[in-house]
Design brief:
Elements (H helix, E strand, L loop, with lengths): L3 E5 L3 H12 L3 E6 L10 E5 L5 H7 L5 E4 L8 H19 L2 E6 L22 H18 L4 E6 L2 E2 L13 H5 L4 E3 L9 E2 L1 H12 L8 E3 L8 H11 L7 E3 L2 H10 L1 H6 L15 H7 L6 H17 L1
Helix pairs in contact: 1-6, 3-4, 7-11
Length: 311
């Protein structure tokens, strides 16, 4: 019998990870609240409550690894993440499964240097502290020999989904030749991570003991401004002269009064107000992983966007 890989969450990363593992012949259980996910002979779709360890143990009493790919509503992190994080830790302790967490760069807070994994987790905001605390608790349990844990951190995603700053809210307008707006400056260099590359690194670190007890930055392509990303996506779609602007601060503040998501996003507004650069050299050198070629990413995102618009 194959060893079980328990993937929790079927967003862009969780679905990609489940398919990567399944294509390798692994037996995958993909757990979500709805039981949704990609169809594959090696993927079993189940319903589970990630905040309840008994629910996770019920769908997968044993596993070689558990992958935290959950994506709760951004403005509810402080409420929803702690019980889920505790559930993942307990599952890893009870089963011996390697805990692999999909995370981000919020824990570092505002920085003026390229981000390495050795930077202190000094985020001043609520959401940044939530993510920082999750890793510090997991690492403490790992260092104490209670569990095996590792974490991968990517920058903002470049994808067709609503998880991307340049995704579902922007690309369809660009493809239709309409003006589009983004949050933050359009002319600051920023690292962009492809969700498939997040999944690729999660798959690698789950089975490589060199990765355990550490966090790893996802190999990503050269930093680009929001204007450059949108212009290059438009070029890949053969759309000329895309019109991109930034949501005015006054408008953002006004919307935030009534929209909790927009209000929560103000915590990390600094990420788009200055160069925000990811140093991914550790993962590249340790695991020999390179990011998906940029041109392929552009074409994939455009293709995915067009397909979604036809539905």
């Amino acid at each position: 019998m194959n060893e079980i890989h328990l993937v929790v969450g079927a967003g862009s990363v969780g679905s990609a990870l489940a398919e990567l593992l399944a294509n390798d012949g692994k037996e995958v259980i993909l757990a979500t609240r709805s039981g949704s996910g990609p169809k594959h002979a090696n993927i079993k779709l189940v319903t589970a409550d990630a905040s309840n360890v008994s629910s996770l143990l019920n769908v997968a009493p044993t596993a070689v690894a558990i992958y935290n790919c959950v994506n709760p509503p951004y403005h509810q992190w402080a409420k929803l993440w702690p019980p889920m994080a505790a559930s993942f830790l307990t599952y890893a302790e009870k089963t011996g499964a390697v805990l692999v967490t999909c995370s981000n760069l919020y824990g570092y807070g505002p920085v003026d240097v390229p981000m390495t994994e050795s930077l202190p987790l000094n985020a001043p905001g609520v959401n940044g502290k939530v993510r920082a605390n999750m890793w510090m608790e997991a690492k403490a349990m790992h260092d104490a020999g209670i569990i095996k844990a590792t974490e991968v951190r990517g920058s903002d995603y470049v994808s067709a989904s609503n998880q991307s700053r340049v995704g579902a809210r922007v690309i369809p307008k660009v493809l239709a030749g309409k003006p589009a707006q983004v949050l933050g400056a359009i002319d600051q260099k920023h690292t962009w991570t492809y969700p498939l590359d997040v999944a690729r690194l999660m798959k690698i670190v789950a089975s490589d003991s060199r990765a355990w007890g550490k966090a790893w930055h996802v190999p990503s392509n050269e930093a680009k401004t929001q204007n450059e990303v949108v212009s290059e996506l438009a070029s890949a779609a053969r759309v000329s002269n895309p019109k991109l602007s930034s949501v005015p601060t006054v408008a953002w503040n006004l919307i935030a009064l009534f929209n909790p998501l927009m209000r929560a996003l103000k915590e990390t507004a600094y990420q788009m107000q200055r160069p925000y650069i990811l140093d991914d050299s550790a993962a590249r050198e340790t695991f020999g992983m390179q990011p998906t070629p940029w041109n392929q990413i552009l074409n994939d995102v455009v293709t995915e966007t067009k397909a979604s618009l036809k539905k």
